[in-house]
Automatic annotation (TrEMBL):
<dbReference type="InterPro" id="IPR050076">
    <property type="entry name" value="ArchSynthase1/Queuine_TRR"/>
</dbReference>
<dbReference type="GO" id="GO:0005737">
    <property type="term" value="C:cytoplasm"/>
</dbReference>
<dbReference type="InterPro" id="IPR002616">
    <property type="entry name" value="tRNA_ribo_trans-like"/>
</dbReference>
<dbReference type="GO" id="GO:0016757">
    <property type="term" value="F:glycosyltransferase activity"/>
</dbReference>
<dbReference type="InterPro" id="IPR053537">
    <property type="entry name" value="DNA-guanine_TGase"/>
</dbReference>
<feature type="domain" description="tRNA-guanine(15) transglycosylase-like">
    <location>
        <begin position="154"/>
        <end position="267"/>
    </location>
</feature>
<keyword id="KW-0819">tRNA processing</keyword>
<dbReference type="InterPro" id="IPR036511">
    <property type="entry name" value="TGT-like_sf"/>
</dbReference>
<protein>
    <submittedName>
        <fullName>Queuine tRNA-ribosyltransferase</fullName>
        <ecNumber>2.4.2.29</ecNumber>
    </submittedName>
</protein>
<keyword id="KW-0808">Transferase</keyword>
<dbReference type="GO" id="GO:0002099">
    <property type="term" value="P:tRNA wobble guanine modification"/>
</dbReference>
<keyword id="KW-0328">Glycosyltransferase</keyword>
<dbReference type="Pfam" id="PF01702">
    <property type="entry name" value="TGT"/>
</dbReference>
Amino acid sequence: MEFFFPDSQDLVDPSFDFITEKRSETRIRQRDDLYAHEIYRRPPYDGMLVSKAIVEGTGAGTGRYTLGQQRRFSVEGVKEFLRMPPGMKVIGDCGAFTYVKESVPPVTVDEVIRFYEDAGFDYGASVDHIIFQYDSDWDYKLPGMERVPEDCIERQALTIELARDFIKTCKKEKVGFEPMGIVQGWSPKSYSRAFSALQKMGYKYIALGGLVPLKSNEIVEILEPISPKLKTDTRLHLFGVSRLDHVKQFAQHGVVSFDSTSPLTQAFKEDKENYYGKDRKYAAIRVPQVDINVKLKNRILSGEVRQGEAFRLERECMEALRLFDKRRFPRADLIELLIEYQSLFGGTRNYAAEYETTLRERPWKECKCNVCQELGINVVIFRGAERNRRRGFHNVYVTHNRLKRIRSRIAVA
């Protein structure tokens, strides 16, 4: 089971100073920044996934890459641009999530193949159209039951037709990457039928899409009718799924790889589970920046909060956290200070209990990863992209290490 990490231009600046919170004035984005695989001695994933939509944009949407970065990507190719270590594989896809609201994909099969071929991808996914509606009951035609939405049927038919055109063109042009067919569905049987169609076309690597909102047991029920149909040389990939608790089940059904940004994004999008510890997840310590927090700036402008008081408490919180990391500041006093500062933002959420757990257990002290060793307590401070992304990189590292342990147990079994 391999873990592919999607690229979303998530890098960190090695020149960033965590005390002054300033960076080198000569720093150039991406060129001088570091990817997660450049921070760790061993990459915290087995490969990467790059979406055409992230690089170039798709339809009405814009990509994450600047025009200069797009030109370098085109000239250097995906592996050199991402500075990937030798031997690491990369999957390309269209980024169908960016055009999910459009009636048809705004990219052609020829455009996508050219993108993969020119950039030197190892695997290239067919053009698809995401189906985000799912109901296993739609497999049973019972009186009074709702019919499958027409939009679902049309999207699946279009995805299958595009997959047929994709592999046909790949074979004709003798491309240098392995075609990966994408399956979309709305129920176990619909996924199974689409899978059969793609396997019959000649795909050896088939990915299941539209799984992100589904529960793990629903993903398993999708895999159950598919796995008996798998030929000995057909492999399965799961798009956007990292349910490590179910890896063994997934593997038993023929899944060999998955991709996910969840370990990264949980660092700054989750309410409480931001830092991956050895046995549990912890809440990060929120110390927003006065000068860029919109909610606090509005309260200052309205006269509800004095600006000087806000800056004073912000400085005191940061200094107290640094002293706490050196065991020179009481935990109870630190939590009281943090809650006082957060009260300025007008929110009703109180994180005192979560902070008590994080600060009492000090999980960053137990972690041997480069990020935790270098940052200390900064890795659990919810503040700015440089801290938050590094915490995300730590989460990716923990995820990959856990996956490696699971792989070892599966191999022994």
